[in-house]
């Protein structure tokens, strides 16, 4: 269980996030949405312990994340960054293996190979296991990194803990099928009892995938709850500066948006790029 | 996701990079090293051949006193000239190659090298300053440190250079390699210039030779020098298993290394101290020898891939081998005179470095 209260982070005299309360329960998927520069990635960095907040604290199973060693944190949570560049030509398999060897999980060679094999299969990169990471497409690179993150999660799971999974725009460079596939992998982790927090830009994907949606605007939490209470016309206008009425699926009232019907709002009135 | 079919067909053979033999390649580097040890031990102006080595060592260890003048001479040459020279070549080569590999991993750039970015020059300046001022201003320090005065000051000089460079090149957690290289060149030139002034202004016996401090030599090898440098090199070797894990994490990026459990700030400090120690010790006993730190890790990476589990031990072994080979060339090519070893390493290393640059024309970043 991850609980944070009163989180604030200031850089250069500006609050990147302020007064943020956040929680992630085991077995739940949480999508963080918001416009560019709203503080989504910053929030993720603070929640994962990469940055220490100036105010408030993040508690992970009762202990302050800022006080936990990196080695312990690596066993409690895994993070998939937006994009990763490698300086030296690792193969895909070697990249995945780093998720086990860098945190130094005590696994035997065969156990490690099995875990890596399973991770690569899960992200559909088995056929490219021996390819150089550099030669992959953007989407494949991110899936290779996801395989690394899965190795870390599963190795930590093997030690008894159910770690959290953080994903920063995991669908950004994926085609539609792989967007769904990546989110399926994340959901699987939640089904096994881990909490998953993902920054997502596609509102429809967020709605379809997440148990809870957190909308951020100007470094503060604008709304936090189930999709139908968060993805509303008011939120879209206030947070994303667009006039757009969400539709709702008949079956369970799940909201959806049609971007082609949107009108951009500029501070004091409706406008659009074309005009 | 497992339910979905594999979405890609297998890539063409050219992009496949299976490396089941990485461990074997490290072992091969060890064999190459042994071969250069034999080569180094059998070379010399006195005409004493390799077969004398086991004989002399055995009689020395057995406590047998040499009888004939021939035996006395043989023992002197083997025990006091060739063995220390070979041992020092191994140590210095390993230290330089290992330092290069660590810096490249730390800065996430294949062009980082302690010689190239001025760390060695910083060490040399500090060493020269301590020798020159050893009788005057710094006399109490030198007296207190004894035989370790020069290696320790070289270590401190290297550390200051490394830290300074890192500060210069890092803004908001991002290290610009272009700045690092350029600042390193400037810093190295400055340190070299000041070293030159001190050397020319000094009449100290140890300092008479500027070539030593700019191009290096294994010629002055002695067991005493080895003893003074050894602790630093051993400390760097002891750090190796820790650095393997850390540097592999750094290859993904600093933030990612942190996510994977590496205390990144601590790790950077430890790696820099280790590099400064190894480079400082190498410079203190053999002067500034360039290009070993950049050439060796690259050759190793070409065969084993970038995993530091293989790159670090492979570099340590091959670095010793390469320096002994370079030293052998330096001793033979203009015999009976001796070429400064830095000329030989630059002759092979500089074109290699250019080739590296051409291959990475995309940028320094």
What report would you give on this structure?
- The complex is a heterodimer of chains A (about 280) and B (about 375).
- With about 280 residues, chain A is of the alpha/beta class.
- Chain A has helices spanning about 40-45, 70-75, 90-100, 110-120, 140-160, 175-190, 205-210, 225-230, 235-240; strands spanning about 1-10, 15-25, 30-35, 55-60, 65, 75-80, 165-170, 195-200, 210-215, 220-225, 240-245, 245-250, 255, 265, 270.
- Chain A has a 6-stranded mixed sheet, sandwiched between helices.
- In chain A, helix 3 (about 90-100) packs across helix 4 (about 110-120) and helix 4 packs across helix 5.
- Mean pLDDT of chain A is about 90; it is low at about 270-275.
- With about 375 residues, chain B is an all-alpha fold.
- Chain B has a single domain (about 5-365), classed as ABC transporter involved in vitamin B12 uptake, BtuC.
- The two termini of chain B are about 35 Å apart.
- The interface between A and B is large, with 52 and 38 residues.
Short note summarizing the structure:
The complex is a heterodimer of chains A (275) and B (365). Helices cover 35% and strands 26% of the residues of chain A. Chain A is α/β, with parallel strands linked by helices and 275 residues long.
C-alpha-based Rg of chain A, rounded: 19 Å
Rg of chain B, Cα atoms, Å: 22 Å
Strand order of the largest sheet of chain A: 6-7-8-3-9-10
In percent, how helical is the residue content of chain B?
Answer: over 70%
> What characterizes the major β-sheet of chain B?
2 strands, antiparallel
Helix and strand string of chain A, N-terminal first? EEEHEEHEHHHEHEHEEHHEEEEE
Largest sheet of chain A: 6 strands, mixed
Number of helices of chain A: 9
**Strand count of chain B:** 2
Q: Helix count of chain B, per DSSP?
A: 14
The poorly predicted ranges of chain A are: 269-275
- As a percent range, the share of strand residues of chain B is under 5%
CATH architecture of chain B: Orthogonal Bundle
- When the domains of chain B are counted, the total is 1
Q: Please state the structural category of chain B.
A: mainly alpha
What is the third-level CATH name, the topology of chain B?
Answer: ABC transporter involved in vitamin B12 uptake, BtuC
CATH class of chain B: Mainly Alpha
Q: Describe the global form of chain A.
A: globular
